[in-house]
Write a structure and sequence with these properties.
Two copies of one chain form a homodimer. Chain A is an alpha/beta fold. In chain A, 41% of the residues lie in helices and 16% in strands. The longest helix of chain A has 21 residues.
Chain lengths: 463, 463
């Protein structure tokens, strides 16, 4: 395959080229991620988690060996409504940086959820629907996942309860409105509608909430739906979500192949790790199998919530209420809550076990960046490339720009691929703060981190 | 050309297929739109309006004969950053309506301005930049045009002053923020920073503003830039804007040709008429030249601002301050201001002279719809097609749905094309009002219309 004379600004694959199966990176990992465990240390089995997750999703969650999972026809039909997403060549950015590097980005923001989250939301809602589930529940922070699941639930006629982190609920009424427009019920978390919410409010009546708390509430709500017809759904972290998001990487891989390109560096922002895990999947396969051993992978996280760069690799609860199973992952402790002034998203205490394992085994680098630098990169990018990015996505932009600037110094014509996960239309309060010079960085002190680490449980015989 | 076996959900032309020239529908109109005139009745010439508009744009504005204008290379380069836009087949909507009709829509919302406005903004900013202009000014209502021009001005390094209708400025702070993120200066209108603004405030200190007033302020500001280096730019109504927006129709035409389709009905929302005029351009050419005489064209406007269906076809000022030249158009009178409760956009008192002439000569139908029906259609569409539409765009959706339902009754398998001009991310206050049952329709009474008509000037020897 030779390079084309001129890469288009935006390359759209045809509908026929949308992948027909998700790729399960675990199948090609020489060492598998550690299994999910129950608080007593036992490895979680399908019956253990069947009340919480839809059956087909559990099969995907627990399967470390099957390399491909067919995308069900109805899910593929919905993918066709907004996919393929474009692979973009950032010519304007390249010119402005005066770099010999080629910069590509996979843009997932061209759907109403405004982000890549819809890829997994459609899959999860479909499997629940196909199983006869009537009610699903979830949590949302910034609101991208909640919007995506609201869209998917509306499509399959599912009743949806969303617990929205209280500070976001108050700061982002429009996010709430859009979820309500798709008929979801949105409750600020912690709330007095669940036992765990009431417990947390009793301890701290003024709590502004956290993703971990909202997860606890959503799980409890799902378990209380009569006749076992409720299930909980999560927008990141889980293996199943990384699996669904592999569509990002698979399409990127195919589009680059058409252009005769292969990335030297793949960069993604990392909150729970689903976008990153999905984007890198087929490229990481090539690294793990030895086909392309030199590719570099960079996870970019906020310095205010630095799980990969300053966290511990340990079993921890997925939720603050400590009601969920435990995952082996880089974690700041389920009790860690980033400073509420942190506007840049990616606020989860833990990290996808797949991404964590790759980092731990040396296949993936991680870097933490300051949100003031992130917003400056976001605005520069917006003016050049005409897309106002989500603050989350702008973490990847910043590091891609730094990489390209390094190429200017060294003269290397590297091919850089990064994930532009979404748009920032609902983040204007943060942009406005940045423009007024009021955005600050809150880097946790070692003491603050220690307080978070203290909430990581010890499990007899395991850790 | 035979129809393909399966139309894709979204058809993207390739970059090479982006049109290289805009199409000037006036060249094929058997009777031309009436010329722009000065208040004394004289036909406006290039020297008359040269202080206000960039030279190349005036050439486009006044030229009724040249069928194609080459798109300058730098404009084409910027188009490539976000174009071609997809031609979508609304399969989900078709199934839900159980209609034999095929419904296509051209979706212009996949760029950060959130609408088709960027197509003309890039062109206008480029021509000003190429002429050595340093400062541009404009008005914005809902904010789509302001956002688009802010993006374009940032790209060409132009200083941009935006006068934003005061009620929008207050209700849509995020719109303001996004324009400021692209370095535009945003002033609520009427303001005390211009003579015309002060005059209007003296008459009505509590004025919530209007597009017509904001235009007056923006023109005055442009004329006061030293050394003749300021120009005013307008996002709709003008012939030049309809010309630039022909890119929508040209791409739609080519994409439908690839599918072996031709629309029986073309539907667009109409505020100032630029999206409608651009969408219909090549199809209307085929009607005017007799190649496709049967195609129907439907302009959809809000019942609360019904220029095409209840307005007068007369010369009127483009602005409330009566400082601009006059256009022959369907108008409610430059003093007409729709009820501030009207949330559905499309609030301009007049209409593109091209669209007006086509309507007047019987080539185009117009229909006025209620905003409560519009929002209901918008939500139904969002749940089926996963795009939350701008309220403006949803006017076209509603009428396309009605047309498809009529096909269900008659059994006709019509091909329907409508323009989905943008997304509704910045309209959540209106959606929320609708969801709470608080959105009402304010249809102007005949007396209210008469008060507007009274502001249409009489011009000796002309009208």
């Amino acid at each position: 395959m030779t390079a084309s004379k001129h890469d288009p600004y935006r390359l759209y694959l045809t509908e026929d080229q949308i992948p027909k199966a998700w790729y399960n990176l675990r199948a090609d990992m020489p060492e598998k991620p550690e299994p999910m465990r129950l608080p007593n240390g036992a490895v979680a089995t399908k019956p253990d988690i069947a009340p919480v997750f839809a059956d087909a999703l559990i099969d995907q969650e627990l399967d470390d060996d099957t390399p491909y999972f067919d995308i069900p026809e109805p899910v593929l039909e919905m993918y066709k409504v907004y996919r393929p997403s474009p692979l973009c060549r950032a010519y304007n950015l390249e010119r402005a940086l005066d770099t010999p590097a080629k910069i590509f980005y996979k843009f997932e923001g061209n759907n109403t959820s405004g982000s890549h989250k819809l890829n997994s939301a459609i899959a999860q809602a479909y499997y629940a629907y196909a199983q006869g589930i009537t009610n699903i529940t979830t949590e949302t922070g910034a609101g991208q996942w909640g919007t995506a699941l609201a869209e998917a639930a509306a499509h399959y006629g599912l009743d949806l309860d969303i617990f929205m982190v209280k500070c976001s609920y108050e700061q982002k009424p429009f996010r709430r409105n859009i979820m309500e427009t798709f008929d979801a019920r949105v409750t600020p978390s912690p709330s007095d509608t669940t036992e765990v919410g009431r417990r947390i409010l009793a301890q701290d009546p003024g709590s502004s909430g956290s993703l971990g708390t909202a997860i606890s509430e959503a799980v409890e709500r799902a378990l209380h739906v009569p006749e076992n017809r409720g299930r909980y759904q999560l927008g990141s972290v889980l293996n199943q979500v990384v699996l669904h998001q592999s569509i990002i990487g698979l399409e990127s891989y195919e589009a680059l192949r058409e252009l005769g390109e292969y990335p030297d560096v793949v960069i993604g922002c990392a909150g729970g790790g689903s976008n990153l895990g999905g984007l890198i999947a087929p490229f990481m396969r090539d690294k793990l199998t030895g086909a392309r051993p030199a590719t570099r992978f960079i996870a970019v996280e906020p310095a205010s919530c630095p799980s990969l760069t300053r966290g511990r690799y340990a079993y921890d609860f997925a939720d603050t209420g400590q009601t969920c199973p435990l995952c082996k992952m880089y974690t700041l402790g389920n009790g860690f809550i980033p400073n509420p002034d942190h506007a840049g998203g990616l606020r989860y205490h833990g990290m996808s076990p797949i991404v964590s394992k790759l980092k731990h085994d040396g296949y993936l680098d991680a870097v933490a960046v300051r949100q003031t630098d992130v917003f400056a990169a976001a605005e520069r990018f917006a003016k050049l490339e005409t897309i106002l990015p989500a603050p989350e996505s702008a973490h990847a932009i910043l590091v891609a720009m730094r990489e390209a600037e390094r190429c200017r110094e060294t003269g290397e014509a590297k091919t850089i691929l990064f994930g532009l996960t979404g748009t920032g239309y609902f983040d204007m309060v943060a942009y406005d703060k940045f423009n007024r010079g009021e955005l600050e960085d809150h880097i946790p002190t070692d003491e603050e981190l220690e307080r978070g680490f203290a909430t990581i449980p010890s499990i007899p015989g395991i850790q």
